[in-house]
Inverse folding.
């Protein structure tokens, strides 16, 4: 059960002129494990939604056909389980057990069979709490595991996973992968979308690469695909395993101190932490899920009032304002001095189009309109968003949204840039572009702080690291 | 905190009753009270409500915290009646221009205030002791409410506590991008309105995605739904409803016997 | 399962109507504090100028979902949510909410659920307002005089509902369409491609 047939499949989202996917011919046999690859915006998430029967007729236009075991996917929903790119939007009920049971109730599973199946699904994904735990009290990784349990409890013939480990710390990601591997029965078909190929390979036996313009670029076993097309795919943005990325370490010695945090904390989210950021250096902040990294980023960015300790800006960063802490600065002044990129890109959007989103900051800081236009056009081109200038930010693909959120912070050319997970969900090409962007900024004398789980990013860019742990804070390591 | 979480001791004998039974009991009890304008019946009802409160596991302190807006409303009712009463019977207590505060007016106002409190308390008690999920389950199983609507409303209700976090996130996003109001009150109001609008937009967007997630798990599959959490309507629940009717009726009877009863219409 | 032109509610109709209702339930709760707090400075019946806010969900639900029962469902749930959060009118909103919601629904029903233009929206808001004011007058303000209180109260409430709920609901729907969140609803269908 769970065989997939696509014939000339295409989908165009309502309100878009370009097809998100087009001309896809593909057959996946029951029990196959497929890794679906392609550059950001190639239509991977759209394709998964089509397989799950979640592209309603009123939200776009379809071409060709999709069949699950010979059925229209809208009629075959009971055979399919899906975990979305963003697990938070996927939780329905207030208690964890109820959430897993929700799908079983919908399918009319007899009441006395429901709870044993819920418990089994929770056990298979290694869920650490009992059924009564409120879903609102879960961290990102725990939500991901719960969503997976909700899909597995349905015993789907076809399991669809969209970047299931994007926001997880490395041990958490490994746990989820183990859970997936352990949860698959011999005849369960798996279609997995994951940019980081090396980590996903143990789970799959076949790789399918989507071509952004339409069609399938490559299809076969991992060895075949990467052996025959490795270089070309890497150039197009696929994370081909075994290929290194060039490092962009700082060349000059760091300059003056921009920002100093002294015993900075916000109980219970962040324990007191000391740190300094200098001009011309890139500092990486690491640590497990829930250690308080995002909280630290918001505190440094002047967006949240410190609970304990202080943040002090130097005269080099703030001029006369150096005596007041950043969270008390007027917003236009803040935006030109410290730029913030939030962990969830959608939390950052405040306007209706990609163009306005980028123009907002420069306009608020009083730049002339001609200069605003050229700044925006430049950023759009550099991050390959030009074709999407008129699009609504909330309709972008995961990777596109991430790029836009980074670009909005760059638009006001702040002296200090604070980014929360700037590289998650990125294809290789954009990733390299982002590393170059940050490195150029750093070399031009800006300070960069990046919160990240991405070890390659740290290796390529960071001059210094700060590891937070859950519990009492640790200091920076040189 | 005012929120969707129940705040009572869940194991209290009446808090454990079926949510539909609690709802019906509270509704029937208050309908009786709406029907009369005298102060006696509501005064008895308030006494009854305060007496059964421990049985619902609600502490008086919790009730006070939840019910304080009632007192503000009470002041409003008294003022309105003093200014606009049609009949000003009884002894004149204070006279200021056209407004004569008479004993009759104050008696009616007292009746209305007591009635308002008497009618509001059952609602506070029911929602303080009832979990939203249980309520939706019971409505479906014991009151034959349409399951799709009950579950849909329940899923949306879960977003209440998230709205506060969302408000913070929107405010931070604006600040990070150079948008603030400074000290100008007009700009402040505009920023407030636009933040509220963004919150509504964000909530609707969440709703559309939630609907997709629900469909992905077969919410609208057309198969008859089963329910994992059994809600039973037992004899004890029927007794609760009957008790509420009896107590409401008793309050009304007392008022009639004392000759204070005044029907709402007539 | 994805009919849009039949009268059956899709999942998205149910959830979005519920979400709007929940958002307004929270607004009602806050508005109730304002109504009985700072707004006490404006004595009744003049305070009824602010009344229209209580009826916005009916118009909004009707205009966005465009299915029979939408106005009724949205306003009723909003009232219930505000009760659950601890509104000062408490419990009687359980009766008043559906009553005014039904009046708001009536406007859409009169036009056979085919017309969702401005006049219908204004009518919906006004009818809901009148129903609400009548309930108030009989239940909360008995013994008041018709001339100096009841009639002005009802008229001011109707006018406020016409403007705040009717015009306001219409404007809010248009603004929401502009953000793209209603793309899957008939109201949001007419937009240009990028
Ligand atoms: N709801 C939507 N409305 C309009 N356009 C959309 C919508 N969702 C996606 N798109 C567009 O369709 C294209 C494909 O998006 P999709 O999310 O499928 O990409 P993806 O391959 O998953 O990319 P990523 O790796 O960045 O997640 C993108 O250009 C995106 O902007
Ligand atoms: N708004 C909030 N209110 C209360 N607690 C919060 C809030 N945001 C986060 N927390 C909690 O504070 C702790 C630190 O959260 P934070 O988001 O800073 O972690 P993080 O290190 O960024 O984790 P991740 O790697 O998962 O993004 C977590 O335990 C989290 O549950
Ligand atoms: Mg995607
Ligand atoms: Mg974080």
């Amino acid at each position: 059960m769970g065989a997939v047939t696509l014939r000339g499949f295409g989908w165009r989202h309502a309100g878009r002129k370009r097809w998100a996917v087009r001309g896809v011919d593909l057959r996946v046999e029951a029990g196959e494990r497929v890794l679906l690859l392609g550059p950001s915006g190639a239509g991977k998430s759209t394709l998964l939604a089509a397989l799950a029967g979640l592209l309603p007729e009123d939200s776009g236009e379809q071409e060709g056909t999709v069949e699950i075991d010979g059925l229209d996917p809208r009629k075959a929903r009971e055979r399919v389980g899906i975990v979305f790119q963003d697990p938070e939007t996927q939780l329905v009920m207030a208690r964890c057990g109820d959430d897993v049971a929700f799908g079983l109730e919908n399918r009319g599973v007899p009441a006395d069979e429901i709870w044993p199946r819920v418990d089994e699904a929770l056990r298979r994904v290694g869920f650490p709490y009992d059924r009564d735990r409120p879903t609102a009290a879960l961290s990102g990784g725990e939500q991901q595991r719960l969503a997976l349990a909700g899909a597995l409890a349905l015993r789907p013939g076809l399991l669809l996973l969209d970047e299931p480990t994007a926001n997880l710390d490395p041990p958490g990601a490994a746990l989820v992968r183990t859970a997936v591997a352990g949860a698959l029965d011999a005849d369960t078909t798996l279609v997995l979308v994951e940019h980081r190929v090396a980590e996903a390979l143990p789970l799959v036996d076949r790789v399918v690469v989507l071509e952004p313009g339409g069609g399938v670029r490559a299809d076969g076993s991992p060895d075949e695909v990467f052996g025959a097309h490795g270089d070309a795919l890497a150039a197009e943005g696929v994370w081909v395993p075994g290929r290194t990325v060039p490092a962009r370490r700082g060349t000059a010695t760091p300059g003056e101190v921009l920002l100093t945090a002294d015993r900075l904390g916000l109980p219970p989210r962040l324990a007191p932490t000391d740190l300094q950021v200098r001009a011309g250096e890139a500092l990486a902040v690491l640590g497990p899920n829930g250690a308080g990294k995002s909280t630290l980023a918001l505190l440094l960015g002047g967006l949240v009032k410190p609970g304990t300790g202080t943040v002090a800006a130097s005269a080099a960063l703030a001029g006369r304002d150096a005596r007041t802490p950043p969270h008390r600065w007027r917003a236009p002044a803040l935006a030109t001095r410290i730029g913030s990129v939030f962990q969830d890109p959608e939390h950052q959007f405040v306007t209706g189009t990609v163009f306005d989103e980028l123009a907002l900051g420069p306009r608020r800081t009083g730049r002339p309109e001609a200069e605003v236009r050229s700044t925006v056009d430049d950023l759009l081109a550099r991050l390959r968003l030009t074709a999407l200038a008129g699009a609504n930010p909330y309709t972008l693909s995961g990777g596109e949204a991430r790029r836009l959120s980074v670009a909005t912070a760059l638009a006001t050319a702040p002296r200090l840039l604070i980014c929360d997970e700037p590289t998650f969900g990125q294809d290789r090409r954009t990733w390299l572009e982002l590393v170059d962007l940050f490195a150029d900024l750093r070399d031009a004398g800006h300070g960069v702080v990046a919160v990240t789980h991405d070890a390659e990013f740290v290796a390529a860019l960071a001059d210094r690291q700060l590891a937070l742990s859950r519990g009492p804070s640790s200091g920076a390591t040189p | 905190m005012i929120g969707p979480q129940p705040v009572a001791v869940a194991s209290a004998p009446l808090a454990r009753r079926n949510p539909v039974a609690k709802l019906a009991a509270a509704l029937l009890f208050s309908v009786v009270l709406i029907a009369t304008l005298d102060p006696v019946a509501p005064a008895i009802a308030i006494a009854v409500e305060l007496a059964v409160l421990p049985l619902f596991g609600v502490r008086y302190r919790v009730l006070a915290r939840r019910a304080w807006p009632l007192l503000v409303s009470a002041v409003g009712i008294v003022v309105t009646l003093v200014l606009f009463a049609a009949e000003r019977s009884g002894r004149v207590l204070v006279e200021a221009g056209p407004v004569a505060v008479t004993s009759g007016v104050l008696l009616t106002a007292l009746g209305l205030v007591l009635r308002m409190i008497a009618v509001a308390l059952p609602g506070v008690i029911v929602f303080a002791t009832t979990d939203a999920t249980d309520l939706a389950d019971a409505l479906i199983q014991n009151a034959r409410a349409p399951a799709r609507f009950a579950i849909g409303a329940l899923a949306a209700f879960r977003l209440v506590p998230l709205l506060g976090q969302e408000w913070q996130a929107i405010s931070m996003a604006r600040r990070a991008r150079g948008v603030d109001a400074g000290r100008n009150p007009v700009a402040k109001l505009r920023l407030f309105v636009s933040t509220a609008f963004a919150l509504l937009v964000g909530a609707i967007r969440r709703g559309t995605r939630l609907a997709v997630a629900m469909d992905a798990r077969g919410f609208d599959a057309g198969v008859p739904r089963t329910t994992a959490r059994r809600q039973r309507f037992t004899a004890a629940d029927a007794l609760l409803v009957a008790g509420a009717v009896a107590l409401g009726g008793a309050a009304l009877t007392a008022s009639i016997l004392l000759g204070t009863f005044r029907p709402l219409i007539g | 399962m994805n009919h849009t032109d039949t009268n059956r509610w899709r999942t998205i109709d149910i959830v979005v109507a519920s979400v709007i209702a929940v958002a307004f339930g929270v607004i009602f709760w806050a508005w109730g504090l304002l109504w009985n707090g700072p707004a006490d400075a404006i004595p009744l019946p003049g305070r009824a100028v602010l009344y229209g806010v209580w009826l916005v969900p009916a118009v909004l639900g009707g205009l966005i979902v465009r299915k029979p029962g939408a106005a009724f469902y949205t306003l009723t749930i909003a009232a219930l949510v505000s009760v659950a959060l601890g509104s000062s009118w408490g419990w009687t909103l359980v009766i008043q909410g559906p009553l005014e919601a039904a009046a708001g629904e009536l406007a859409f029903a009169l036009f056979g659920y085919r017309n969702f233009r401005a006049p219908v929206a204004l009518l919906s808001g006004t009818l809901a307002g009148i129903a609400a004011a009548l309930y108030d007058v009989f239940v909360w303000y008995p013994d008041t005089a018709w001339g100096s209180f009841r009639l002005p109260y009802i008229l001011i409430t109707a006018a406020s509902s016409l403007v705040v709920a009717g015009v306001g609901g219409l404007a809010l729907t248009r603004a929401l369409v502009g953000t793209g969140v209603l793309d899957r609803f008939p109201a949001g269908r007419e937009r240009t491609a990028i």
Observations:
- Chain C has a mean pLDDT of 85.
- Chain C touches chain A through 15 residues (CB under 8 Å).
- Helices of chain C lie at 11-36, 56-65, 70-85, 93-110, 118-140, 146-179.
